[in-house]
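Summary of Year 1 activities. Much of the first year was spent building the evaluation harness for sequence design. The harness presents a backbone, in tokenized form, and records the residue chosen at every position. We chose the following record to illustrate the format because it has been used consistently in internal testing since the harness was completed.
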């Protein structure tokens, strides 16, 4: 009886490992766990994890290594984060046909990274527009100052003419007396 139970357990374990996508789900869980651990780690450990993922991807360009590197590039904080590189790695995986756990996660992560990239571009564009409007406002202010200076000079000239006229009239009144 004991032998039958052991055989049944081995059979169930074998069936579980034959389930479609079981290996990918296990590897995906490992990739996500590693990314979470690395994101919470000090900067030196984050750099080490990223370096190891780069090396693993250079050695073997497998889907799992690609996804691992892309996940780290997307999940780590700045300065290790590289959304452009992560998206470039994820895009082919997300576009692939099929229903694998890797493809589903790559699609989700690629969407998130693409949104971050879009928001970053919009933010940069808004900053450039703000900078242009500040320059335009400074130029308008400079033009107004120049106009104000010209008006002051004209006013001073008119006042000088008026003083000259008043002085001449005074001289003429004194001569009449």
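For this record, the design step produced the sequence shown next.
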């Amino acid at each position: 009886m004991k032998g039958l139970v052991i055989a049944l357990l081995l059979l169930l374990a074998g069936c579980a490992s034959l389930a479609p996508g079981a290996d990918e789900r296990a590897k995906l869980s490992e990739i996500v766990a590693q990314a979470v651990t690395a994101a919470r780690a000090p900067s030196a450990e984050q750099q080490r994890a990223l370096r190891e993922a780069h090396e693993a991807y250079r050695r073997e360009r497998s889907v799992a290594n690609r996804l691992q590197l892309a996940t780290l590039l997307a999940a780590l904080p700045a300065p290790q984060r590289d959304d452009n590189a992560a998206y470039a790695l994820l895009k082919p995986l997300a576009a692939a046909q099929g229903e694998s756990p890797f493809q589903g996660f790559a699609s989700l992560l690629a969407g998130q990274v693409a949104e971050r990239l879009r928001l970053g571009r919009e933010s940069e564009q808004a900053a450039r527009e703000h900078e242009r409007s500040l320059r335009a406002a400074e130029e308008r202010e400079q033009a107004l100052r120049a106009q104000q200076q010209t008006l002051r000079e004209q006013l001073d000239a008119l006042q000088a003419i008026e003083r000259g006229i008043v002085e001449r009239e005074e001289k003429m009144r004194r001569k009449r007396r």
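Residues 28-123 form one domain. Quantitative recovery figures across the full test set are reported in Table 2.
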